[in-house]
Amino acid sequence: MALEPSNSDLPSHGLYINGAWRDAEGERTFTVTEPATGAALARVASASRADVDQAVAAARAAFDHGPWPHTPYYERAKILQQLAKLLEERAPELAELESRDGGVPLRATTFNDIPLGLHMLHTFGELARRSPYEPLPWTDFPTLAWSFVWRQPYGVCAQIIPWNFAFCMAIWKLGPALATGNTVIFKPSSLAPLTSIALVKMIDESGLLPRGVVNLVTGPGGETGEYLVSHPNVDKVAFTGSTEVGRKIMSIAAPHLKKVTLELGGKSPSILLPDADLDKAVDGALFGMFYHAGQLCEAGTRCFVPASLYDEVIERMVARTRQFRVGDPLDLATDIGPLISFKQRDSVERYIQLGRAEGAQLALGGARPSGPLYDQGSYLEPTIFTHVNNTSRLAQEEIFGPVFAVIRYDDIGEAITLANDSRYGLAGSIWSQDYQLALEVARRLRTGTVWINDHHVLNPYAPFGGFKESGTGREMGVAGLLEYTQATHIHVDFQQNRAGKLWWDALLPPVDDEG
Ligand code: NAD
Question: Is 499 within a domain?
Answer without folding.
Answer: no
